[in-house]
Design a protein that fits this description.
Elements lengths: L1 E5 L16 E5 H6 L16 E4 L4 E4 L5 H14 L7 H18 L2 H11 L1 H9 L6 H5 L3 H5 L4
Length: 151
């Protein structure tokens, strides 16, 4: 479930409580886990800083970043528990399975259009890794995996 929240806490920055630039679209559980001093502001993150490793679906920093940015990305991943098996990683797996279902039942092009709208980070990583045609094989999904109800 997603929410809209203040990036700078309204208790600490009451003058920014109603400023649009202080709002961020967030997932509920990572939002509860956040500590502003250890996570990157989503508006400061550049495309490609965060990567998804396939088939593990773990989020990692890009390998070519400077040490400070890498540490801040790792801090964000750890603080928000983006690789937590029971929440964030499962959500990525469901997104990948939905993409694979859509590609199986339609076409990879339409599946990618769908993924860009619904799961932009996952879609960007599928494209960066050039997996649009082979994702199902990389993930080793069978029809039974794709037909099973979400966990």
């Amino acid at each position: 479930m997603s929410h809209c929240d203040h990036f700078k806490a309204k208790d600490e920055f009451p003058n920014e409580a109603y400023e649009w630039l202080n709002y961020r679209f967030v997932c509920a559980l990572p939002n509860i886990r956040k500590r502003k001093d250890t996570i990157l502001d989503p508006f400061q993150i550049k495309d490609g800083w965060f990567r998804i490793d396939f088939p593990s679906l773990l989020v990692k920093p890009a390998p070519d970043l400077d040490k400070d940015v890498t540490q801040r990305i790792e801090g964000t991943i750890n603080t928000l528990k983006l690789n937590d098996e029971t929440t964030c990683r499962n959500a990525r797996e469901e997104a990948v399975k939905e993409y694979c279902r859509y590609a199986r039942d339609g076409s990879p092009e339409k599946a990618m259009e769908f993924a860009r709208r619904k799961f932009p980070f996952v879609a960007m990583e599928i494209e960066r890794n050039e997996l649009s045609q082979s994702l199902r094989e990389v993930m080793r999904y069978t029809d039974a995996d794709l037909n099973a109800p979400p966990v």
